[in-house]
Amino acid sequence: MNLKKEEPRIGVFVCHCGLNIAGVIDVKAVIEYAKTLPGVVYTKDNRYTCADPGQEEIRKAIKELKLNRVVVAACSPRMHEPTFRKTCAEANLNPFFFEMANIREFSSWCHPSTPKEATEKAKEIVRMAVAKARLLQPLKEIEVPVTDRALVIGGGIAGINSALDLAEMGYKVFLLEKTESIGGHMAQLDKTFPTLDCSICIEGPKMVDVGRHSNIEIISYADLVSVSGYVGNFKVKIRKNPRYVIKDNCTGCGECREACPIEYPNEWDINMGVRKAISIPFEQAVPLVYTVNMDHCIECFKCVDACGARRAINFEQSPEEVELDVGAIVVATGFDVYLPVEDPLYGYGKYDNVITALEFERLILAAGPTGGKVIRFSDGKKPHTVAFIQCVGSRNLKKYEYCSGFCCMYALKNAILLKEKYKDEVEVYIIYMDIRAHFKGYEEFYRRARNLGVNFIRGRTSHILEDAETKNLTIRAEDMTLNQPIELPAEMVVLCTAAVPKSDAADMARALNISRGTDGFFMESHPKLKPMDTPADGIFLAGACQAPKDIPYSVSQGSGAAARAATILSKEKWKIEPIVANVDPEKCRNTKVKCGICAERCPYGAIEALEGKPAEVLTAMCHGCGTCVAECPADAITQNHFTDEQIFAQISAALDENPENKILGFLCNWCCYAGADLAGTSRFEYPPLIRPIRLMCSGRVDRDFVLEAFRLGAGMVLIGACHLPYDCHYISGNWKMKARMDALAPMLEKLGLSPQRFRVEYVSAAEGLKFAELMKEMGGQLKELGPEKISAENAKIKPILDRMMAKKKSTGS
Amino acid sequence: MRIRKSEAGNCLIIERTQHAKKYRLVIDRKLCVGCELCSLVCPREALETKRQLKQRGQKAACPTVDVEETKCDYCGICSAICPFGAAQVNIDGRDVEVVVEKESFPQLIHEISVDTEKCPPDCVECEKACPLEIISVKSNPKTKSVIVDAQEEKCPACHICEAKCPEDAIHIRNIFTGKLKINREKCPSSCQDCLDVCPIPNALYLSDKDGKIYVNEQFCTYCGACRIACPEEGALELSRATIYHTPVRSGAWNKALEKLTSTTEMTKELRGKGRKRTMEAVKRRMMERKK
Fold first, then answer.
1. HSE value, Cβ hemisphere, 13 Å, CA-based, for A165
2. What is the pTM of this model?
3. Domains of chain A, each with CATH number or no CATH
């Protein structure tokens, strides 16, 4: 059956999305307009197309009216394209005969005060979608085998729960931990809110379970080197750092530690205590294997003598690289604690008795470096007044805009612990902006602190002073209740500092090809509906690597991410989108001359171009960015579902009327398109000038697309890509595009085009505001240039571009 | 944790203060002669002996020791190796050499024996002779006995007192033995920096005959201060052969030996002890150095 030759029968379904679309856009007008488009045989508006009745309408229409193409004008394809593809499939229509027109994020939400223009824009977006739909071709989803093993990165409480749940489901789990022991931040804490149970007492058994589970292999003291492959088939390279202790021989007895003469600050104890050059970071470490720190070891080999016949110490060890095959990855890398060393306000690092809350945890912990004695650094004496200062770094537009979430609760907990331990001997103050105690049992806990006589002062700290002699502190703050400045003497100040992204989060994001938000934490696929997914299929997030989270929240997310990973691991085969590239062997010139440009430019090495033979795409390795398609000098490569023909049809549909007043945008799916979506979701208003064409990667943007757009008279052309150098979802598609466009731009200028008419911009998925600002800026420029100047320039260059494009069409597609 | 460095009372003090423990290393500049020993053996390379800038027309000043405070682990090796007793580690108020306590490093053996029977009455030649001023002679007129009080831990065994003693009553055992040679062809003329910085008078001397510097190995302590001061590479050749120390079985000591003496000397010692593993460690380090 050759469906290509079948006459298109297109159904257009326009969604009201309640009032989200219909509140701005005249849906009836869009429907009427859609009816006039060639190939459209049916139109229908729905209040909620994605709801079951809406989907049923589509299924019914496909069956009854023999529709062979479906266009839904509603929200972003990043949201509901999979939903409607499934709807089509249920009605026995190939899911790739579906096309989405994004009139919500790209029109109603971002142009609320210009409903007329928004409606016009919506019509044109529908026209573009219908134009593409006419040329859609059926595709068969590609099935890949799934490796039923998982990698969990990070052995904190979230990672531990993910690993345990996956292991209990029967999957083999590799738990990768950077430090010597699993446990994470939770293992450093004293008690936990709101029940005051001892942190390590409840986490310890879980750590032991992980260590003992036959399905879990802990790979600790190891670094992630690289991740390649794709959902169901990841290849992960890990470097195991040498411990100089043989894991299987070490009994954890600690005799080597006794013999060792060298003590160095224990980072795990936030340098408040010391550890030996051969030691474990803390007594409950899992795996219980000692480690020699070669930076400090003097190689006296006293440990070797102490170890004796066990022969567990081996100074010959060297780093070892291993490669793992896994089907899914859970990222649970956690957070760092902000240290306000550069902030003169708090005097941290300068004043002896100003410490962070994590340092306080180590102080009050019975197993801590001081044996649970809360003492001052300056004189080793017990403080009589302790003040907790909230929101240090957090909720601060100059530092970290977000609320770190758990600081209020741990400050309450520490205040209660102090009160219960030292009774009336200690006066406790909490200086806060708002107390956020909104989960189960938290508010009651807050009341308990108040009843114990903890003093709460609402206000912001302006300055802390130290008495040079006594090392006592004076906090200057504004008391908002009294509405006046106050001075509060304190013998110890505890800073409740922000939880910040891990210092190596950028490297991790690059290795995994996942994105980060403006706050630096890893970004989820959807803030509400896919809070544990990443844009990379098969990679999930758990715990504080996504945003600060307390223990119960991290535990639930750990389990949630495990369940998400299991949806992949439980299948024998996983379907991936068949939007891969194909080479037409007839057109490929590698048969005649040595070309191989596609093979060279492919970011994944997925193309083979052997001498004298046409190039060939290795489908399983192709990620579908389309860079090779744009690079091919003979136009011999096609990308399924993003063919040249389809994109040219979208271009001409977009520029059919008043082209000089429009900005034609080629936006990459993962960054710029997502950023534009975010601008819509955030309701940032901007002029309704852009006509977006979504491509998977900016690497797909062919020079010809730009030339064609200007040939048809486009006012401006924008290429929106992921940020250089590392943000590209396809490793380097943005670089390939940049090289191409860097060569094109001067040529266009030479032909007489104003340089501002052709823009390449880099907008991340988190930069909705940047996209809106860019649109305003370009809109202003377009107005400044004026339609006359643009038309004049167009008239000048049109014959040249006509010739160029005609030549293309005669030789190429 | 706070790490501080300060100079007070002619001492260089570095401190690491933690909630649980306090560490301190004091280098007494009055005792320190600016030799190379501690900087050679420090496993963290935290100590550095620096040559001082020479003022025109003035004598070369003694090299000084500086400590990189963030590197020090307060292990006590510098204190154990200093023959002048200039370095002292203190942990939580206790003077201590942890490496010595844990038998990871030996102590130098300072041995001064005085036969006071031989001492002539009222003779203070040794006290006068000692360039480091660590000997004091007291005589008890009642009993006619003499007490020679020498601070052994500060004595580098220069033998000057021995040479000056009229009755051959005082004997010092060598701590370091070795060879100090001046390469005439490389030694720049009209420079006597080595002589200026040498803590022991007459260990180096300017010859009246040819105006050049000669070594009197009888008095040399092989501390290496001259080598640091010498502006011309290879003009001074210093090699140590043996070190008199308390017995120890430790890789760290072997490593130190290797730096203080030479690989040949050390392998000799190792072979004597039959230490296979430490030999391997030495080989490994040599390989690394080649890389």
1. 23
2. 0.85
3. 1-141 (3.40.50), 145-229+323-334+502-576 (3.50.50.60), 242-318 (3.30.70), 337-500 (3.50.50.60), 581-637 (3.30.70.20), 642-813 (3.40.50)
